[in-house]
Structures are given as C-alpha cells and as structure tokens.
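Database export, one record per block. Field names are fixed; values are copied verbatim from the stored entry.
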Amino acid sequence: MITKSIPNLFTLGNLFLGMLAMMLALDGRYSLAAIMVIVAMLLDGLDGRVARALNCSSEFGKQLDSLSDVISFGVAPALIMYLISFQSLPQTGLVWVVTALFPMCGALRLARFNVHKGIPGYFIGLPIPAAGGVVATLSLFSKDISALYLMISMILLSYLMVSSVKYPNFKKVGLPKKALIFTPFVVLLAVMIAVIFPEQISKLIFVPLVLYAGYGLRQNVRKLLRRKRRVEEDPERIYKPKR
C-alpha cells in the first residue's frame, strides 16, 4: 500500500510547488515563483518513472497527474506572466483572454492525452509542462521583451498545445529500480540549487525549453511547405478521388 502511494507523493509535490509558485508570484517574488514551476517539472517527470519502476501505475495516478499539471503548468505560469508583464497594461478583454487561454488550452491538451492513445514515442501537441516552463521562464525577460511579443508567445504556445504537431516523448525513458533510493536526494539538491540561484537557473533552463517548443513549430512549418509544394507540382491532386 505504501509503495503504491510513492508516485502520488511526487505528483502531490508537483501540485504543492504549483500552488507555492502562485503564492510567491502574488508576493512579488517572481524569480522564485518561476523556479518552483521548473522544479515541479522535475517531479512531474519522475512520478511516472517511479510508478513504472515500482510496477504500480494506476488510473488514479494518471488523473491526479493531469489535475496537478493544470495548476502547476497552466494556471501558475499564466498568473506569473500576468503579474509581471500584463498587470500594468490597460485591463482590456484581450489581456484577460490571452492569460486565460493558456491554462484552457493546457486543460484541453491534457484531456486529449488522457483519452487518446497517441503515437508511440511521441506526444501529440506540445506537452503542458514544457509550455508552462517556457511561459514561467520567459516572464523573467519582461524588461527586455515588449508585452505584445510576450502575448503573442503565449498565444503561440497555447496553439502548439492543442495542435497535432508531434513532439518527442522522453517520459518513457525508464528509471532503474536501484536509482529510486537516490531520487529524493536529487530532488532536494535541485531545490537547493534553484532556491540559491533562482533567476540564473530559470533563464538557463529557458533555452532548452524554448528549443523544444520551437522544434514542433519548425516541423509544422515544414509540413505546410511540403503540402504547398505538392499542390504546386500537381494542382489537381487534391481533387482526385481516392480508389
């Protein structure tokens, strides 16, 4: 019974950090808020691996994981971005819609993930932890990037989450059972480093996250260009009936 609860403790830790990120953001401690989202990503990446290593995966854990992800990688990053970059803007409907759109698309992405089998080795649509990580860390560049570009980035990330673009799935990489004993120490070390250097770590992690998100966008553009090229080469092809 205790063994079966271990993966859920990681998931609840993810949820706790998401809530903590929002409280820190409301308190004006934005760098720490962003790093809490990043550490939550670490726990989110571990809960499934721990469950598979202990052979205790469950439907309950899957649903709990999705609910936690909506908070930690949907609501929390959107709130951080709003408080840092959008709060000082004229409070028009556009600001509210863009802020709310992100967690809404994240929820749709998770719901689709739970009911569709997908493609082995790939995610369909940008995973919400990656999207949330980009938004949380991107918000720290608000002094260097205009609010308009930040809003466009949030809209683009929202689209990528609900798109049909394929992203590599690294979650299936297993965790050896012998390594489980070191997992709490790794998490603790990561938290300590993150708390000591919150802004530096957040901005450093921003780079691989945005490259991962951009990978899908690049693939989508290439797909559209290939389709356009096929139509130009054979304009009647799209009208030919299938046999």
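Remark 1: The mean pLDDT is 84.
Remark 2: The domain at 2-217 is CATH 1.20.120.1760 (Four Helix Bundle (Hemerythrin (Met), subunit A)).
End of record.
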